[in-house]
Design goal:
Elements lengths: L2 H11 L5 H23 L3 H16 L6 H13 L7 H11 L1 H13 L18 H39 L2
Helix pairs in contact: 4-7, 5-6, 5-7, 6-7
Length: 170
């Protein structure tokens, strides 16, 4: 197996090879073969990049990264009116009655998706696309939850502030 390597080395160097050179060359040749085998077994940077690209393509078909989904998310952030979310009732209940009772409308309002009448979407034709609809609805629901829980926090905070001020006056 090392003979072609030795003859190649002899042709390159144009010098005769001694027996001691052959034994040390066998060691070097076996080391080179082992290194080549190890390099061949590990994936190259190109193979890793290709595998990563394939995984990204496969993942993008199952995750909400399509352009219509993204457009739905952007439109919801821009056009969702954030009215009729139940935030006003949640604030009033948690401020006027108590934060414990305020949890009831907060949970009820935050768990329900916005109704179609309150969506405020810019184009009814876009809402027919399932990815756009999913992106818009999920984002609108997240905005609604944020507003409702913000109102609950503000109402509870105001309640505790009034109670603290009332006790400090005594």
């Amino acid at each position: 197996m090392c003979t072609p390597l030795l003859s190649l080395q002899a042709q390159i160097n144009e010098t005769p090879i001694s027996q001691s050179d052959i034994s040390s060359t066998n060691l070097v040749a076996s080391t080179v073969e082992t290194t080549v085998e190890m390099v061949e077994e590990s994936p190259t940077q190109t193979e890793l990049a290709t595998a990563f690209s394939i995984e990204q393509i496969e993942a993008s078909s199952t995750t909400p990264d399509s352009s219509m989904y993204t457009q739905g998310v952007l439109d919801a952030n821009r056009f969702y009116p954030k009215k009729s979310t139940g935030a006003g009732g949640t604030f009033c209940t948690s401020f006027l009655l108590s934060p414990i009772l305020g949890l009831i409308p907060a949970i009820a309002c935050a768990s329900k998706e916005p109704s179609v009448a309150n969506m405020g979407y810019p184009d009814a034709q876009l809402m027919k696309d399932p990815e756009y609809l999913r992106g818009y609805t999920e984002t609108a629901h997240a905005l609604k939850k944020k507003k409702v829980w913000g109102a609950y926090g503000a109402g509870a905070g105001a309640y505790f502030l009034v109670v603290a001020l009332a006790y400090s006056q005594q």
